[in-house]
Amino acid sequence: MTATQSKYRYEAETLDGERVKGDIVAVSAHVARNELAVQGMRVHKISERKGVNVEITKQKVPLVDIMHFSRQMATFLRAGVPVTEALANLREDAENKRFKEVLGDVLDRVASGRSVTESLDRHADVFPAYFMALLGSAELTGRMDEAFDQLHSYIRRDVELSRSVRKALIYPMILMGVSILVVLVIVVFAIPKFADFFADFDAELPLPTRMLMSVADFVGSTAGLITGVVLVIAAAGALLYVRTPKGRRNLHAVQLKIPMVSTVVTYSSTERFTRVLAALLESGVPLPEALPTSIDCANNMVYQERLRESMEGVIEGQGFAEPLARTDLFPTAVIQMVRVGERTGELSDQLENAASFYEEELEYAVDKLTAWFEPIMILFIGIVVGFVALAMVSAMYGIYNQVEL
Question: Is there a single domain that holds both residue 42 and residue 13?
Fold first, then answer.
């Protein structure tokens, strides 16, 4: 049993009318029910058996592994290697334990006559939402190698963008960590030493020095300790809250209201949505069927909600550009490109153009955001260190003027 699977107890009826009971291992109850239906059983009751999972935590499959898998599958299939042989080779080479198990399960199912798409769909929590949509269409037309190539290209863009964002944030985050460390060292260790030194002179200290001493006294007191604990609990609570659907939705709504951050979120969601939709349309998936998968790829819940609402207009025959414009989320350029694509019958090409354009705009927006973040951190450190220096120097001069030598 893999980390993603559970054991389910079922009661079913065979084609001969015989009532049977048993256990089945599957990713979900829905998948288990489908598996039993394929075996010719009509399920009357199915429930998960608690406490039977071998592994407590799920090992994640990095997106990079899926990217390499897509490229290698495209190469094998283009060279005429059978699907089962390609899957067997990739399973042997997989270093991620969970991915090795997934590929083993996929290989067993393909070898028993199932389609590649159906076999991969059993592990939908491992592969991106658009993965099966692209492969399902390509498998019917026999263009699996092209589909895997397309998937590799898209995932590679996603991986490279994520890497560039992380790389751009490394230095500012280091600065933030250093600034927090500097403040803690000054307040917890340095200020109390100076306080004892100034107390020996029994002189009146300047206002900046008294403010600094008050902060140090508060941090070292019981009230300061309680405040620190409360802040840590509040931060942990906030992290847990944003992991809930409501909390994540509220966080995404706030992101759309913060200057510069909203630009990054808008360009990112636009690029993902248009890129996946263009790929699905290009592979032959009809627009109404391609929209749900594309909407799931938008990495903002506000976008997902409004796009799902706009889907009703598409289904009712209102076209695609007008319902998209009513969401009030996408830049005007995207709406214009979609209108042109609808008029000329080249919607997938126009969506791909929009995705490429906003991919470049997203990189620029991220660079701009991180460029602002770095000087803000430096300014914060400068203000803190400058205030401490001012407090110390002014105290020294005050003591020198008040104390008779």
Answer: yes
